[in-house]
Amino acid sequence: MKALLISLGLVGALAAQVSENAPSGYRFPSEADHSGDWKEFRATVPMPFVVRADFNGDGTFDEVWLLPTSSGTGWGLFAALGSAKGPRRFVRLEQDGKTEVQGFGVTLVKPGQYKTACGKGYWACKRDEPELLDLKSPAFEFFMFESASSIFWWDPRAGVFRRTWISD
User: Fold this and answer.
1) Which positions of the chain have pLDDT values less than 70?
2) How many distinct structural domains can be found in the chain?
């Protein structure tokens, strides 16, 4: 129970650090949202909706949030990019208006080498698709529980997040 309370306190603290308000049409997760896969896998992924690291290498912490829509079914995946000079900026990376958010999660990915889906033989690698993803900075995994998975990583040359599939 103590771990649960600490976890819930962290969610509130993280939400307050990002912004008082989630992006328009979305909301921060609450305890009531812990159902489905979020409830089933809570012991191994206690907060499947938020990760924190300096993803873009600017020296400030960024957060990635998996946010339920304000009403109805659906979700959005957002990066809240930190700034030493002003408020955080939300960037939408993915969205779905038909699927329950509890089927998805995010986790932190440490720098290192990761075999990609095409590198594992799921399909033939395209020209711009590597067999091995070599991360120099933290990234995050976006996944469907017990299903597909991809890594979002910051491309410093383009100044955007890129997505590389890890499994199908």
Assistant:
1) 1-20
2) 1
